[in-house]
Design brief:
Number of helices: 8
Number of strands: 0
Strand content: under 5%
Order of helices and strands: HHHHHHHH
Length: about 190
């Protein structure tokens, strides 16, 4: 007999499909893992966050509008200068800032529209940075100005940042030092 006359038996997996059997399309491995991934992640409902001062949620594209305030945030909270960051680090830090903003995790002062206006006006003024800089160790609460009417009575009390600066100065000056001209005049 010739080879063509013999009939081979097929294994069940390679047997030709008959019209009575259902044909199932085999899925690719990537579509199976995608389906598993979707099922594996529990869907958590997004609860809307009420931000202070009825502030709007931020998006990645809002960087240009909020850049002066973001620069102030980086300076105060992270002791970083916005202009010294490369593009990748800037985008990463902006993304984290947006997440914290949208979850309402920042101090209330950052949501105040006046903070944004002050940062924008400071960015537009040709004043030197040393005149407008805020000490790096100041807190977020220092961003909010008190509108108390007591300002006109007597000298202004030292702020928290002034006290911290003075404390740091005294720590640096502990121990003997070289006398200056004023010290020598006092000895006479």
């Amino acid at each position: 007999m010739s080879q063509h006359g013999r009939r081979r038996s097929y294994s069940p997996s390679t047997e030709p499909q008959s019209s009575s059997r259902h044909h199932f399309r085999r899925q690719s491995p990537s579509s199976i893992t995608k389906a598993r991934d979707v099922r594996a992640k529990p869907v958590t409902p997004v609860t809307p966050v009420n931000l202070p001062f009825q502030a709007q949620l931020l998006m990645k594209g809002d960087l240009e509008a909020y850049k002066p305030m973001f620069g102030l945030y980086l300076d105060i909270q992270k002791q970083l200068v916005l202009d010294e960051l490369d593009e990748k680090e800037l985008k990463g830090r902006w993304k984290r800032f947006v997440g914290r903003w949208n979850r309402g995790e920042l101090a209330e002062g950052w949501y105040d529209p006046q903070t944004l206006r002050k940062a924008q006006s400071a960015a537009n003024d040709p004043i030197t940075p040393s005149q407008t800089s805020i000490p790096a160790n100041s807190s977020q609460d220092d961003l909010i100005e008190d509108d108390d009417d007591d300002d006109g009575y007597g000298p202004a009390l030292p702020s928290k940042s002034d006290q911290r600066i003075e404390r740091a100065r005294t720590l640096k000056q502990s121990g003997p030092s070289i006398p200056n001209i004023q010290d020598l005049e006092l000895q006479r």
